[in-house]
């Protein structure tokens, strides 16, 4: 098991506050300041957890360029005070960036919940064996 460094602990706190401010900004009718602050905290927390070089490598891979463009463009739109359009563009970029992760996350959640009718509906043909 890997030990968590102090910088990673700070990064987790920043990401938590960033998600809180993003949620609170959406709940308060897309408040631009809260959304911008949440985006900045979330991205800085991500950089502290993963590292600056690994974060840059993740966002600037050739096959993830379109997702990164939309995600970071959405962050820029929020910072330039276009919150609704910025959040929509961010969400689309997030979907493009993590689309390969969603089937694995769904299968993990379904394996922990273990509801037979949902497992039959979302069953995947890949095996972890």
UniProtKB/TrEMBL annotation:
Membrane topology: Multi-pass membrane protein
InterPro entries: Got1, Vesicle_transpt_Got1/SFT2
Intracellular or extracellular location(s): Golgi apparatus membrane
Keyword Transport in record: no
Recorded GO CC terms: cytosol; endoplasmic reticulum; Golgi membrane
Keyword Transferase appears in the UniProt entry: no
Transmembrane segments: 12-30, 36-56, 68-89, 101-122
Superkingdom of this protein's organism: Eukaryota
Keywords associated with the record: Golgi apparatus, Membrane, Transmembrane, Transmembrane helix
Pfam (any one): Got1
Purpose of the protein: May be involved in fusion of ER-derived transport vesicles with the Golgi complex.
Family per similarity comment: Belongs to the GOT1 family.
Protein name as it appears in the record: Vesicle transport protein GOT1A
